[in-house]
């Protein structure tokens, strides 16, 4: 029987995959993919908990997360195109002009 | 609440208007200003009263809340935005890269921040946070002729969205642990769970705190601050420094005071480490900077440290600590806004550079600007007779009252260090002969922008001296009393 724990473990695994992706990938497009994986991991968690409690607000949360993720990527891809036009590269290492 | 709707309506209208070829940028700027002014006036009508209610419960259920607390923060955010739009007038006119849509995004971002302090659900808080951040990402990257802008925008976007995801994961954990994400109810559920295992809630709340620490640029997450502030245009960095932090504090204070009250002790040690590291590292970063803009960005990290001192003392001296945070936010907002605004006015021309060395002997050429800049530096350093001093005074006394004498000492030491990098500018301006910099390109004191900056400087001094001179005029006491009142409104059932 698949219970809440299994879903939460899946959330954890997906989240770790996404987190490693964000930290390791230098391709900006891949970076956005990793962010999406992270968000969807959270979505699974929300929906599973929502089903567990029989409470709909978690599913509502998931819908809004999908919408926000889309708008975030829209801004991100816009910037990506801008950067590619200018520098001909979508690599994170081409971004390091400023030093902290 | 009406103010919130007014700003949202204004933003949408402005977006539609900016598509018309007849409408020029000056009109958009004026429109944004008028919308903000109406919003501020609407907010001020209920300022200083004690109340709390859920607006339109049929539509929003309990997702939004209106109380004295959120009205106080609304007033700060709106006046910050208003001052930004006044200060930016000159800048936006000289730099032709800005387009009309910029002002619409500006209003959207203000709307997001106001929504954040009104949020009474983790979901609405997340949406508000994203509205504010997304508009800011675009605002930072707006002048796309500069690689620096695009890069700053990118950096903020990638890191900011990661921080947002941590907030979501945290909310998922809290939801799993408590079964609700409505503020207020979460606190009640937590009370009934006390004595049982609440580790899931603690993990979730810690993840939410990570987002919070990132957005206010506290220690482990401070690296983006200097680059992003330096990369964005000056009015935008002023806006970010002054108002976004206010909104974030507004939400997180509500969350901590109302909902996570029973488990707040868990983070005491964590916060003490974070505060000391923030103060140390922020001071270090501020000392090594050569550019004035980067120094102000780095010093904003130190100011975050001071605010966190008050934040941690909430547990033991709730009322005075919470109201001291609110008061310090006002003080910092005025000083930072003034400093950033004046520098943006000076550096409106591309040729003018704003490193320390460029200000050698500035006072002999532009005495009034130098005087104003000195006032802002004095206030940021917390010298008596400025509003910055009063703010710091309340924070440190609050910390001592709560038993965190050590933290108060750390804060005072950081203040001493900060005198070095703030006074270096004053010393360079006054005690050296004028160098042959391009001061010709510095605009003369004319128009609305210098007037606003001058008024801010006066407000800083007046806030520090208090109402001893002008009787029957609201002063520091009024602000701090209203802060206390807004704190009380959090606990009305």
TrEMBL record, chain A:
NDH-1 shuttles electrons from NADH, via FMN and iron-sulfur (Fe-S) centers, to quinones in the respiratory chain. The immediate electron acceptor for the enzyme in this species is believed to be ubiquinone. Couples the redox reaction to proton translocation (for every two electrons transferred, four hydrogen ions are translocated across the cytoplasmic membrane), and thus conserves the redox energy in a proton gradient. It catalyses: a quinone + NADH + 5 H(+)(in) = a quinol + NAD(+) + 4 H(+)(out). This is NADH-quinone oxidoreductase subunit K. It is a multi-pass membrane protein. Its EC number is 7.1.1.-. NDH-1 is composed of 14 different subunits. Subunits NuoA, H, J, K, L, M, N constitute the membrane sector of the complex. It comes from the Bacteria. The keyword Endoplasmic reticulum does not apply. It is found in: Cell membrane; Membrane. Pfam families: Oxidored_q2. InterPro entries: NADH_UbQ_OxRdtase_chain4L/K, NUOK/Mnh_C1-like. HAMAP family: NDH1_NuoK (MF_01456). One of its GO terms (cellular component) is plasma membrane. Belongs to the complex I subunit 4L family. GO terms for molecular function: NADH dehydrogenase (quinone) (non-electrogenic) activity; quinone binding. Keywords: Cell membrane, Membrane, NAD, Quinone, Translocase, Transmembrane, Transmembrane helix, Transport, Ubiquinone. The chain crosses the membrane at residues 6-22, 29-49, 61-84. One of its GO terms (biological process) is ATP synthesis coupled electron transport. It comes from Sulfurospirillum cavolei.
């Amino acid at each position: 029987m698949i219970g809440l724990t299994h879903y939460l473990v899946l959330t954890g695994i997906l989240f770790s995959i996404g987190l490693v992706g964000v930290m390791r990938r230098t391709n900006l497009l891949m970076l956005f993919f990793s962010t999406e994986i992270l968000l969807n991991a959270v979505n699974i968690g929300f929906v599973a908990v929502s089903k567990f409690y029989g409470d709909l607000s978690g599913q509502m949360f998931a819908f809004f997360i999908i919408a926000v993720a889309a708008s975030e990527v829209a801004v991100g891809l816009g910037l990506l195109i801008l950067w590619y036009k200018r520098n001909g590269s979508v690599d994170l290492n081409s971004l390091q002009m400023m030093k902290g | 609440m009406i103010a919130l709707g007014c700003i949202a309506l204004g933003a949408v209208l402005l977006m539609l208007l900016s598509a018309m070829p007849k409408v020029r940028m000056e009109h958009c700027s004026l429109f944004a200003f008028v919308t903000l002014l109406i919003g501020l006036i609407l907010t001020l009508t209920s300022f200083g009263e004690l109340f709390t209610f859920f607006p339109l419960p049929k539509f929003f259920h309990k997702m939004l809340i209106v109380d004295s607390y959120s009205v106080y923060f609304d007033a700060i955010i709106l006046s910050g935005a208003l001052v930004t739009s006044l200060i930016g007038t000159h800048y936006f006119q000289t730099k032709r890269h800005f387009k009309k849509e910029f002002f619409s995004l500006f209003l959207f971002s203000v709307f997001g921040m106001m929504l954040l302090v009104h949020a009474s659900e983790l979901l609405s808080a997340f949406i508000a946070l994203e509205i504010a951040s997304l508009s800011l990402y675009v605002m930072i990257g707006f002048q796309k002729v500069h690689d620096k802008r695009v890069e700053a925008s990118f950096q903020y976007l990638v890191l900011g969205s990661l921080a947002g995801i941590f907030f979501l994961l945290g909310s998922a954990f809290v939801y799993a642990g408590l079964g609700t994400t409505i503020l207020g109810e979460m606190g009640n559920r937590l009370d009934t769970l006390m004595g049982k295992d609440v580790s899931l809630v603690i993990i979730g709340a810690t993840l939410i705190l990570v987002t919070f620490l990132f957005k206010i640029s506290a220690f482990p997450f401070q690296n983006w601050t200097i680059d992003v502030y330096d990369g964005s245009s000056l009015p935008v960095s002023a806006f970010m420094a002054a108002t976004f932090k206010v909104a974030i504090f507004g939400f997180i204070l509500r969350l901590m005071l109302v909902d996570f009250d029973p488990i707040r002790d868990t983070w005491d040690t964590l916060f003490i480490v974070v505060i000391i590291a923030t103060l140390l590292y922020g001071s270090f970063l501020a000392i090594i900077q050569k550019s004035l803009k980067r120094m102000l960005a780095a010093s904003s990290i130190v100011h975050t440290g001071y605010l966190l001192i008050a934040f941690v003392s909430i547990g033991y001296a709730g009322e005075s600590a919470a109201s001291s945070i609110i008061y310090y936010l006002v003080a910092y907002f005025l000083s930072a806004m003034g400093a950033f605004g004046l520098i943006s006015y000076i550096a409106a021309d591309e040729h003018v550079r704003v490193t320390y060395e460029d200000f050698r002997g500035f006072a002999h050429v532009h005495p009034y600007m130098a005087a104003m800049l000195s006032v802002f530096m004095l206030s940021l350093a917390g010298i008596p007779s400025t509003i910055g001093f009063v703010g710091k005074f309340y924070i440190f006394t609050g910390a001592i009252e709560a038993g965190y004498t050590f933290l108060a000492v750390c804060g005072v030491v950081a203040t001493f260090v900060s005198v070095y990098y703030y006074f270096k500018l004053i010393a360079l301006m006054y005690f050296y002969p004028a160098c042959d910099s391009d001061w010709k390109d510095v605009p003369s004191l004319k128009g609305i922008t210098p007037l606003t900056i001058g008024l801010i400087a006066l407000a800083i001094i007046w806030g520090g001296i208090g109402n001893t001179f002008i009787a029957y005029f609201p002063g520091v006491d009024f602000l701090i009393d209203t802060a206390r009142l807004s704190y009380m409104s959090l606990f009305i059932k």
